Amino acid sequence: MEQPTSLLEYALTVIRENILTGKYKAGEKLSTQDIAEELGTSRTPVNAAINRLVAEGLAEAIPRRGTIVRQLSEEQISDIIDVRILLESYAIERAIKNVSKNPEKIEYMKELLYSFDFKNADYKSVSDFEAEFHRTLVKLSGNEQLLRLYDTNWTMGYVSYFYTMAHMPDEKHKKFFDEHKTIIEYLESGNADELEKLIKSHIMSLKLA
């Protein structure tokens, strides 16, 4: 019998969160029994959730070993960052054209920026802010397929992004955060060339952190 969706979603949310925050570390085996006991559920929704995470790329099924948290190589992380730059750069011109048609999205980006307490935020909060801010920029392009590709790439890259933010020098944190205000300014002024340069340097800094 199929497990209720609510339990599956609960297991998926918790396991994904534990991977993204580093509670379940790269290379660690995902024990269905242990996780089920931890969540207070049967193994069925946990199994289904782990299978979903394998499909997302956060976990990896290894023959005769079981399923482990996927460990990305430096080259894979670099590729993920390059793809993010490619997708956001492609979205820029279309997003600028849609600014006047979708003022609520620009207002939402401003709300995210000005309501976020950067000084007192932990690395997960900063990572979540970055994800939502840039996802809204891509969403502003109006291209749903582009957004799906972006979401898939971001899921793969979140763990490495979280790690990068945790190891980024404090003096770079403020500059990195303040660049979001300039991104909004370039969107509103329609300055595609400068916005593309900023987006590239902004994301590329994750390689140099």
Summed up:
GO terms for molecular function: DNA binding; DNA-binding transcription factor activity. The chain has helices spanning 5-20, 32-39, 43-56, 74-97, 103-115, 123-139, 144-167, 170-189, 192-208, and strands spanning 59-62, 66-69. It contains nine helices and two strands; from the N terminus they run αααββαααααα.
What does this protein look like?
This is GntR family transcriptional regulator. Pfam families: FCD, GntR. InterPro entries: GntR_C, TF_FadR/GntR_C, Tscrpt_reg_HTH_GntR, WH-like_DNA-bd_sf, WH_DNA-bd_sf. One of its GO terms (molecular function) is DNA-binding transcription factor activity. It comes from Candidatus Fimicola merdigallinarum. It is a single chain. The protein contains nine helices and two strands. With 209 residues, it is mainly alpha-helical. The protein has a two-stranded antiparallel ribbon with strand order 1-2. Helix 5 (103-115) runs antiparallel to helix 8 (170-189) and helix 6 packs antiparallel against helix 7. The radius of gyration is 19 Å and the shape is elongated. It starts with a helix and ends with a helix. The model has no long low-confidence stretch (mean pLDDT 88).
